[in-house]
Specification:
InterPro entries: Acyl_CoA_acyltransferase, FEMABX, PG_Glycine_Bridge_Synth. The protein is α+β, with helices and mostly antiparallel strands. The protein has two domains: about 1-135 and about 305-325, Gcn5-related N-acetyltransferase (GNAT) (Aminopeptidase), CATH 3.40.630.30; about 140-300, Aminopeptidase. The chain has helices spanning about 10-20, 30-35, 70, 90-105, 120-125, 145-150, 155-165, 175-195, 200-210, 255-270, 290-295, 310-325, and strands at about 1-5, 40-50, 50-60, 75-80, 80-85, 110-115, 130-135, 135-140, 170, 215-220, 225-230, 230-235, 235-240, 240-245, 275, 300, 305-310.
C-alpha cells in the first residue's frame, strides 16, 4: 500500500532509506520539513513491503503568483526517488503511476531532476509515461585533498590562493545581516543572468536559522562578496544548491571561485566523500556554467531527468513564455 504521511515512517526506516544508492538530501525528512515550513506544497509517496520502505518519492509544487500560476505550475522531484535494492519493477511502476495520477490536475508537468544513476530503471519510467531528457552534472571526489587539488584547473587553484593571500576569508554565516547581504548578490544574479524564479529572502533566512544547509560566505574588508548554500546528506554528499559572487569588484579577489572552494574544503576537512554540483546543463547546448564547473576537477556524469507532461497544451505555452522571458 502507498502511504503519503511521512510521520508514519519510522526512524529505522528513514535510516535504511539513507543507505540506498539513490538516497539524496532532497528526499530526506529534513528537506521535506523545511519545504513545508516555508509554505511550499509538498507531496510524498512511500511503498512499504515487509516493513521496509522500498520506494520513496517526494517533491514540491512550484508556481508563480497571480494569473501566471496556471501556466507555471510544475511538480519538481529534486534528486529523484529513493529505490531500495529490494524493490521490484512493479513496486517502482506502482509509485510512479500513483504520482502521475495524483499530480495530473495539479501541475502542467512532473520533472525528476536526478542526482544519482537511474539507468537500470529507464524502461520502468518509460512505462509510466516519463521521457528521459539528457542532463549533465559533475561529481567531485573529496576523499583526498592532494588528489582533489591536482585534478583542479591550475588557473582556478591559483585564483583561490590569490584571493586568500589578498585577504579574502571564508566563513560560515553568523547573523541575519550576512544572509541578507548574500541574498542581495544572489538576487541580482538571478535577475540579470539566470532569469528563473528565486525563492524570497525569508526562505533563505529560515533555511539558515533551522540549519537545513551550510552557508559559506566570502568576506573581504568586512564585506560579503558572495557565498554558497550547501545541504549535506549524512556526511556522504555535500551539494551546491545556490552560489554567487561579486566577481570583478576587487583585484585578485575571485568570490565565485572561492565560494565553490569553500564547499570543497569543508568536504575534505569533514570526511564527506562527494561534492555534487547539482547540474551542468544539456549536453547539446553551450552552457557557460558547465565550463566554469568543469574547472574544479569533478567527473562529468549524465544522470538526466525524467519528464512527464500532464497537460501538453499548457506546457507548450508555458515553455514558450519562459524562453521569451529569458531572452529579455
Amino acid at each position: 500500500m502507498i502511504q503519503s504521511n511521512i510521520d508514519n515512517i519510522s526512524e529505522k526506516q528513514w535510516t535504511e532509506l539513507s543507505k540506498c544508492n539513490t538516497a539524496n538530501f532532497f528526499q530526506s525528512k529534513v528537506a521535506l520539513h523545511f519545504f513545508e515550513s516555508v509554505g511550499t506544497e509538498v507531496f510524498t509517496f512511500a511503498l512499504e513491503k515487509d516493513k521496509e520502505i522500498v520506494v520513496f518519492l517526494s517533491g514540491i509544487i512550484q508556481k508563480e503568483k497571480g494569473v501566471k500560476a496556471g501556466l507555471t505550475s510544475r511538480a519538481i522531484i529534486y534528486g529523484g526517488p529513493i529505490i531500495s535494492e529490494n524493490a521490484e519493477e512493479k513496486n517502482v511502476l506502482e509509485v510512479l503511476a500513483y504520482t502521475v495520477s495524483y499530480l495530473k490536475k495539479k501541475a502542467i508537468y512532473v520533472e525528476m531532476r536526478n542526482l544519482n544513476d537511474y539507468g537500470d530503471y529507464k524502461e520502468v519510467f518509460k512505462k509510466a509515461g516519463f521521457e528521459y531528457v539528457p542532463h549533465l552534472n559533475f561529481h567531485l571526489d573529496c576523499e583526498d585533498e592532494a588528489v582533489m587539488r591536482k585534478r583542479m584547473s591550475s588557473s582556478k587553484l591559483r585564483q583561490v590562493k590569490k584571493s586568500l593571500k589578498q585577504g579574502a576569508e571564508i566563513k560560515e554565516a553568523q547573523d541575519q545581516k550576512e544572509i541578507e547581504a548574500y541574498y542581495a548578490i544572489l538576487e541580482n544574479l538571478y535577475k540579470t543572468k539566470v532569469k528563473t524564479p528565486l525563492p524570497n529572502l525569508d526562505y533563505f533566512i529560515r533555511m539558515w536559522k533551522d540549519k537545513v544547509a551550510k552557508f559559506f560566505l566570502v568576506i573581504y574588508k568586512e564585506e560579503v562578496l558572495g557565498g554558497i548554500v550547501c545541504p549535506v546528506l549524512d556526511n556522504k554528499v555535500i551539494y551546491e544548491w545556490f552560489v554567487c559572487g561579486k566577481d570583478g569588484a576587487y583585484k585578485n579577489i575571485y568570490p565565485s571561485i572561492l565560494a565553490t572552494w569553500a564547499a570543497m574544503d569543508y568536504a575534505v576537512k569533514n570526511d564527506i566523500p562527494r561534492f555534487d554540483f547539482m547540474g551542468a546543463g544539456k549536453p547539446d547546448q553551450d552552457y557557460g556554467v558547465r565550463e566554469f564547473k568543469s574547472k574544479f576537477g569533478g567527473e562529468q556524469v549524465e544522470h538526466g531527468r525524467f519528464l512527464n507532461v500532464t497537460q501538453p497544451l499548457l506546457y507548450k505555452v508555458g515553455k514558450t513564455a519562459v524562453k521569451i522571458l529569458k531572452s529579455i
